[in-house]
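Lab notes, practical 5.
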Amino acid sequence: MISVDNLTVSFGGWDLFKEISLLVNPKDRIGLVGKNGAGKSTLLKVIAGLQPATSGAVTKSGDVTIGYLPQQMKVADTTSLAEETAKAFDEVIVLEKEIASLTAEIAERTDYESAAYEKLLHRLNDATDRYHMLGGDNREAEVEKTLLGLGFRRSDFGRPTSEFSGGWRMRIELAKLLLRRPSVFLLDEPTNHLDIESIQWLEDYLKDYNGAVVLISHDRAFLDNVTNRTVELMLGRLYDYKVPYSQYVVLRRERREQQMAAYENQQRMIEKTEEFIEKFRYKPTKSNQVQSRIKQLEKIDRIEVDEEDLSALNIKFPPAPRSGQIVAEVKGAGKSFGDKHVFSGADFTIEKGDRIALVGRNGEGKTTFARMLIGQLQPTEGSIKVGVNVNIGYYAQNQDDLMNGEFTVYDTLDRVAVGDIRTRLRDILGAFLFRGEDIDKKVKVLSGGERSRLAMARMMLEPHNLLVLDEPTNHMDMRSKDILKNALLKYDGTLVVVSHDREFLDGLVDKVYEFRDGGVKEYLGGIRYFLEKRKVESMREIEARAPRQSAEPVKATKGKIDYQQKKEMERAIRKTQNGVEAIEKRIAELEAAIAGWDAKLADPAAHGIDVSDQSVFAEYEGLKQQLKYEEHEWEKLGYELELLQDQLREML
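Output from the prediction step:
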């Protein structure tokens, strides 16, 4: 399909990558991975024919068509959403006119035996086949299905494209690309502007697509769910693994360990041989052995170990200043912009140490709520009250765009830093991978990932006890995301994060607030729990709308669950029930211990308690905090038990 042969791309004498080769086969699902700046986007541009290579060649078979989605692009503002999306069918419209013209001409002719007549029939047949293959018969339905899948509403179809934000405009281009049905998709970070539901829809679409897919993504879950082959660009070389991303990580580590063991063994053998040669080089009695060893060394096929990129994003958030237990009280909060209602009914309390994810479709109010929380916007209904001594650090979704492109990397921090922190700016930039001459680069020449890292560094110049992060991982590579996540896991303050990256949120948050259909719903559990719960709720919504089936099909559906599946589900339910019972036992023990302390503190003298000893109250408060944690875990496990029981009922 597409053959990349000995491709080299150089800039000013420096090789971005050198003599790499790659074959893209029909129905391949390739994840192109590597750190920011490794050359992934450049490789896609070269394959798409948008950028020349220094040397080497890209060969495509004659009938291959390519659909390329860059990270950033401009969208025309002269049409409505539906009209702009329908441009994907330009070829279909041309074919439609040609078919009509050919049909009319054939109907008028009478030279049925001539070569010209036969040629017309062949062309009509080819045009008709191509028309059907491109979905010409049901293009309006395909436009609707694709736009709805990418998160648009039917009420959006008539809206001018100029009214949509940059993220939604990217979705318009993605919709057009999907509808064109090229032989090969080249997708550069297609999930950056999608919400979780749209990402899942795109996953299903690409898995079932009849062509090949080559995609760049820093969403590990997306890569695992879509790809079956991982190609890594590292330090100018290409490594091809016939497995999804998570398996590639394991295989790559194993391959390097094997290489390193073989390399070390060979180095020890070479060292001993060289010692022997050096020791007996001038002894006539050993001359034959010495010559033999010299020839042996010359014949050795030297093992090379892959050079490893050990640079890392070394982030450590400053300790969070002390705040009150209540970080923010949200009471019936809502927001409207004129006639446009965004959401209402947000009613919850953010407490010290909470780790919260804000999720939902784009435009439902996640970023609006984040801006209300930090005081940039005011609620049009209800209230949001920030607690005592709360110091907020805010990372905006377009944080990298808010920086002055003419400033250097160093100047960007230097202009906002105050006090002693200014003496540590180079160390801080080094932790964010800006080293040596990098700090003198202008912001406008940085990649998306580099700008994100710089914006995060700027936010960390002062300590905060509440971090509000709006899409912090957009454009970050896998390693940067992993180390940012590890730093946030160690952060001792309160965290509110807007993100669509399921793998990034997994294990990081313990509460999820979903903004959906103008309201806000709380899920007391992590992101995996939320996704499972939403799946069940979506099934119920579909079933509620679906017409009732006869008894026979229901019985047929019930028959699909086998004995082993039922046993596994029942085993999971029993395990969760045991967990609930164990937590209930711990809660009872903690309540008894707290009641005992209540009695002692009511009359400390009678129980020999020194009320001036702060450790006494620390132990008492520790028990109360543990009880709060166990109650939260009990509630979460209870929801999980309910979910499993619902799933079993659905399967039976």
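Observations recorded by the TA: Residues 538 and 544 are 10 Å apart (CA to CA). Residues 563-602 form the longest helix (40 residues).
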